[in-house]
Amino acid sequence: MASIESLFKKMKRNKIQAMNIGDGHRLFVLFLIGIVAGTMLVNIFLNQYVDNICIYGEYLTDGFERVNLIALEKVEFFCFCFKKYLIQVLFIVIFNLSSKGKLFNGLVCLYKGGVIAVLICAATISYGSGGVLLFIASIFPHYFLYIPLYIYTFYLGMNLKNKFSDNKHIFTVLKSVGIEGVFIVGTAFLEAYVNLPIIINILK
Predict the structure, then answer these.
(1) Which residue of 26, 72, 141, 144 lies most exposed, with the fewest beta carbons within 10 A?
(2) CA angle 98, 154, 111 (to 5 degrees)
């Protein structure tokens, strides 16, 4: 009897894992759709507005003094980045505890893909191949942690209900919160203390 019960639990666990893999593929496809949609949006409808869209236009004209001032206040900028990523993580986790979690995750992936495509296209149209280098510089190196942060947050959000339903998983939840904290602090640190000086040096 115990072996049959164990078999059913294993089947249920495998079903949950398969569902999560499917959700991951769905989110990745939506992210790619966002990239395609963003690219088409810029090249077809917003081509004449790229100077206003491209965030680097502000940096390369009258925004240098502002960026330089921020560079002198790295602690404040680190706190700003930390709060920014913490709020994003909380929104994803909280929405995944509701019935609208899948819809919210899909919209986030569409939005992220679209934004990346719009910024890359706008930078390329405005500055040619140099625009791509500027975009890469703007996401280096904190995106090495930012991308895993988002992937892990989606995974945690989609599995949190199951972990809360079993008291044995409380330690796992606390461990997951700790991992999220490391990702958030690490990403904010890299953006404030490594990425921002890179941007400053490029703009000098």
Answers:
(1) 72
(2) 90
Q: Which residues contact 45 (CB under 8 A, 6 or more apart)?
A: none
Q: Is 178 exposed, middle or buried (0-12, 13-18, 19+ CB in 10 A)?
A: exposed
Sign of the torsion formed by the C-alpha atoms of 54, 59, 60 and 61 = positive
Dmax of the chain from CA atoms? 74
Which residue is it, tokens 């089947």? 11
**pLDDT tens, residue by residue, 124-182:** 877 777 778 888 888 899 999 999 999 999 988 888 876 665 556 777 788 889 999 99
Say which residue the tokens 């904010």 belong to: 188
Indicate whether this model's pTM tops 0.70: yes
Contact 187, 81 (CB under 8 A): yes
* Numbers of helices and strands, H then E, in the chain: 10, 0
Q: What is the DSSP letter of 49?
A: G
CB 195 within 8 A of CB 133: no
DSSP 63: -
Is 191 buried (19+), middle (13-18) or exposed (0-12) by CB count in 10 A?
buried
Q: How far apart are CA 142 and CA 72, in angstroms?
A: 19
